[in-house]
Design brief:
heterodimer, A: 287 residues, mainly alpha, 2 strands, 33% helix, 2% strand, globular, B: 136 residues, 6 strands
């Protein structure tokens, strides 16, 4: 049993140990395996193949397991570290300690958006990106995407609205589920209904690889998803009688039957069911 | 999973576009990122298909946008009819269509666009001059 802390509460030493563990995973090649896995599980809701990770009910349990795998890899390097969370409803500034020189480094510079501060700046020689997507090997960020089409971070109200929804997920269990906690947090824009929100919006706000399919190229990915995982906890506490849905794969012979993961359907690549991931209280807790 | 090529995934897209959730959503739908996605010419071409569950995807396009060559055309890979392929300077940009008929790409994964051309333009902006690597 260990604790996942709010990133703002980390001590200087905790930050250093976490950064060192991430850099060691990178050096060993293990980190990039996580990047590639996320890219491979980029499956849209119009594709004919299993879709456990995004645009689907199992968005929360799949990412819980994915984070656990990453955290285990970190702990194999340094047993004292865990994945902190970034509460972007509170730490909203581009100069938050999250983005400081001793932690994740800051925004990309004007011009080419290259991150030039902190341990993940390209010039350190310790961090290169681009696996399978572009030939550009330095980490970039573009906070808020200033210009014609800027993005703001979601607010506490946005999150509160999602947490109020008493239903976990609704048909058709994909990116156009207008009701339900899952898609309100995952945050798919739905034509004529709503724009991109919460989880998706944060990816957009950071910019660079975080806006694309290889988003774990930026270590903030893990802190973002740690908070998303915590929000699932908060929703379950707010609605103790509400269940993960769908309980079973849809009964109709529609395509969703093959592509939606019910409570007891093993999810690739680990073949673990959503049910097994509902309760993490024996593994970690949030502080 | 790693064996599954992107080309194949792309080809698979079309099958699902037929019918189902598309009813009620115009194929020319606007997207969450209206300012970057507006494409009146393209939309005009497709007025006739609104609500008609699509056997026909968006039309081909080819243009220079911010100094990059962007092209899109229906593709017919893998025995699936339909599908759509987009290139930037000759390298494939992996694009796919959502249930509300909007599009995303590997570069802009977390937002949706009305058309493949809008996805390509958004990727050009995001790429800042860097090249896509060939898909495997």
């Amino acid at each position: 049993m260990y604790t996942r802390k709010n990133q703002r509460d980390l001590t200087r030493t905790e930050k250093r140990r976490l950064v060192d563990a991430i850099l060691k995973l990178k050096r060993s090649g293990r980190y990039d395996e996580f990047v590639v896995m996320h890219r491979e599980y980029y499956v849209m809701d119009t594709e004919n193949r299993p879709r456990p990770a995004h645009m689907t009910s199992s968005f929360f349990p799949w990412h819980r397991r994915y984070l656990l795998e990453f955290e285990r890899a970190l702990q194999a390097v340094d047993p004292g570290v865990s994945v902190p969370y970034w509460d972007w409803t509170k730490d909203r500034s581009t100069t938050s300690s999250l983005w400081a020189e001793d932690f994740l480094g800051g925004n990309g510079r004007a011009g080419d958006r290259r991150v030039t501060t902190g341990p993940f700046a390209y010039a350190t020689g310790n961090w290169s990106v681009g696996r399978g997507v572009t030939d550009q090997n330095w980490l970039t960020r573009n906070f808020g995407r200033p210009g014609n089409n800027p993005v703001s971070l979601p607010t506490a109200d946005d999150v509160a609205r999602a947490l109020k929804d008493p239903v976990y997920d609704t048909e058709p269990w994909n990116s156009i589920s207008t009701e339900g906690f899952r898609n309100r947090i995952e945050g798919w824009g739905i034509h004529r209904v709503r724009t991109v929100g919460n989880h998706n919006r944060v990816h957009q706000w950071v910019g660079g690889p975080m806006a694309g399919a290889a988003s774990p190229e930026d270590p903030v990915f893990w802190l973002h998803h740690s908070f998303i995982d915590l929000l699932w906890d908060r929703w379950r506490k707010a609605h103790p009688k509400a269940a993960y849905l769908p309980g079973r794969k849809p009964a109709s012979p529609g395509r969703d039957r093959a592509y939606v993961f019910g409570l007891d359907d093993p999810m690739p690549p680990w073949n673990v069911t959503p049910r097994k991931l509902l309760d993490h209280s024996k593994i970690y807790r949030y502080a | 999973m790693p064996q599954l090529t992107r080309r194949r995934a792309l080809g698979a897209t079309a099958t699902v576009v037929t019918g189902l959730v598309l009813t009620g959503f115009a194929r020319t739908a606007g997207a969450s990122s209206e300012p970057r996605t507006a494409d009146p010419k393209h939309n005009a071409e497709h007025k006739g298909h609104a609500g008609h569950a699509g056997h026909e995807g968006p039309q081909p396009f080819s243009e220079t946008y911010r100094g990059r060559r962007i092209e899109g055309a229906p593709s017919h890979g893998d025995g699936h009819h339909g599908g759509y392929a987009v290139q930037i300077d000759g390298e494939e940009l992996h694009v796919m269509q959502n249930a509300d008929s909007t599009w995303v790409s590997v570069i802009n994964h977390y937002e949706t666009f009305a058309t493949p051309r809008a996805v390509a333009r958004a990727a050009v902006i995001e790429l800042q001059g860097s090249e896509l690597v060939p898909l495997t």
